[in-house]
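User: I'll paste a sequence; please echo it back and then give the predicted structure.

Assistant: Echoing your sequence first, then the prediction.
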Amino acid sequence: MAFDFTRREFLKMMGVGAASTAFSECFTKGVRSARQPLYIGTYTNGASEGIYFANMDTASGALELKGVTKGISNPSFLAVDRQQRFLYAVSETPEFEGEPGGSVHAYAIDSGTGNLRHLNARSSRGGGPCHLTVDAQGRNVLVANYSGGNVAVLPIQSDGSLLPASDVAQHEGSSITKRQQGPHAHSVTLDAAGRFAFVADLGLDKVMIYRFDGAEGQLTPGNPPWAQVRSGAGPRHFAFHPDGTRAYVINELDSTLTAFTYDPSSGRLTESQTLSTLPDGFTGDNYPADVHVAASGRYVYGSNRGHDSIVVFAIDPETGALTTVQHQSVEGKWPRNFALDPTGQFLLVANQNSDTVVVFAIDADTGKLTPTGQVLEVPTPVCLRFMPPHS
């Protein structure tokens, strides 16, 4: 059965509440229901039992916890393939199968319930796996290993399970602070075309640039091989602008955000601006963690751990210049990662040290955030992952 009317028309016919109650799946022509599935990665060295699963009501932002997938230690970062069939999670452990380093776990997603079924796990080929991404074709998982100082490529089989790493790119070098005595790969991000991979290395003060061959699962140094940020900045997470010509990295050690222009033909990043993520006068310790760009391309958001806020920057549509709009309290402690919901109405924050996921409404005209009052209690949440747009 096909549906030819839009989601807006459907909600008007049924009423938002009725639609929210009656439907939990997406319609066949890509019209989304009033509920969005959300997966929550955690650290399991306390009360957490693994990867939590919730539904979000897109009318109110309310979150309903549905269950937890147990049997994985410290699933601190998650990724879902664009076909919405498989979820991949890092496992930050001292060793895997008797060898030093962490692992990556593969799960099949039940399309009816959202429940996860474990497929297999493979070595991440380095210590402290902390971030991963799936290429657009669903052929490879790329994982950044923080303490290992490298990035690895793990091919995906047709059933979603993982093969051993097809390539490992090891970083070398250091920078000026105590936390920068060696390389610390903190995130790996692909450009829209899947031709280049960008690895923010906190230890080197560089965003490493690789050409990526998805068919062979291979990384080769780009030309240029990196983009430099200021010494002692500590680049952590990286995000592209929707137009594909701009990018941003949030810097953990000096509480800044660096904006770049991007040349998709060469992979070159050119710094255009660096701004503080903090309000004037703040003197405490602070460690930014995550960065995301609104689908509208009008705003950049970053999380501040210490100041415990989300910083909002407006993007000039002509010049790309950033201006600070707001510092919104996260109403919790230590905001690790956060997520923009697929409808663009809400921003959700994982407050690691207060065991909460807090929901904020986004003003489409200003980018500013307002607390909705919706709070979900989850032990040690550190990663929030909605389903990506279906391809």
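The radius of gyration is 20 Å. The helical segments are 7-14, 16-22.
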